[in-house]
Amino acid sequence: GAVVSQHPSRVICKSGTSVKIECRSLDFQATTMFWYRQFPKKSLMLMATSNEGSKATYEQGVEKDKFLINHASLTLSTLTVTSAHPEDSSFYICSARVGLDYNEQFFGPGTRLTVL
Amino acid sequence: LAKTTQPISMDSYEGQEVNITCSHNNIATNDYITWYQQFPSQGPRFIIQGYKTKVTNEVASLFIPADRKSSTLSLPRVSLSDTAVYYCLVVLSGYSTLTFGKGTMLLVSP
Question: For A50-69, what is each residue's pLDDT tens digit?
């Protein structure tokens, strides 16, 4: 099946710094990628939908100036957490849509962000 | 989007069949039922999807009654490695946003 990778797998940073997370579709082109956040023992919550070549669409309550999303190519989307604070510590997961069907959406392995 | 309700947790033993039921009383005509599996610190993995009756693949079976207000994910002969959270989602055909509920934490013991 289609493979989605994320880098880094885990990152620890100091409060106030910015962190960039990459999401790549390795063997297919993804016109749409999605970013989720998952707190411990909680479900995934959609943060934003990223379309190649256009601005991301953010879910209600997600600050677009804090979570910068760039989808510059059909195989790469990046999420930058700007001025990270401890409450931003979470598990960030991306997914990529292969085609038009909802079930053709493959998830990355996630990135564990810890802000000290 | 139709809301789903599923048990918070389930316990089982190796070799047993596990059935996880999900209710989705307000499912719409064009909605499909999809199940994902998530291991700790990993992204979700697609298991199975269906619209009605029964769907079977190499991993699981999905049973959907005629009224489609519920569905049951059946895992045959579970092993320890099936310990994971299982999410039931109802998704509008062609609409790719997924809304995850709380899921069912399945614990398989020796």
Answer: 988 888 999 999 999 999 99
